[in-house]
């Protein structure tokens, strides 16, 4: 699989988005109770997916159809969560 695979790039963009939303949430809710834990719910999966997408084993796994369904489900939950916090 080439490094510029559109599927892998989509996973990377999703992980960047989760990281960004988590870090933005951390900054703009400074002083709120439980802010760090709320933000880490977004940052940790984003960072994990980004790291997975950078390894050869991760690229092979992410190219599977089941990985796409799992990532879309987790992504949808994270997007919904980001609007709630």
Describe the model.
The chain crosses the membrane at residues 39-55, 67-84. Keywords: Membrane, Transmembrane, Transmembrane helix. This protein is mainly α and 85 residues long. It has one domain (6-84). The protein is built from four helices and no strands. The protein has helices spanning 6-28, 35-53, 56-62, 65-84. Helix 1 packs antiparallel against helix 2. The chain is elongated. 15% of the residues are buried.
Strands, total number? 0
Continuous helix count: 4
Strand fraction:
under 5%
Shape: elongated
Keywords: Membrane, Transmembrane, Transmembrane helix
What attributes does this structure have?
single chain, 4 helices, mainly alpha, 85 residues, 81% helix
Q: What would a concise description of this structure say?
A:
This protein is an all-alpha fold and 85 residues long. 81% of the residues lie in helices and 0% in strands.
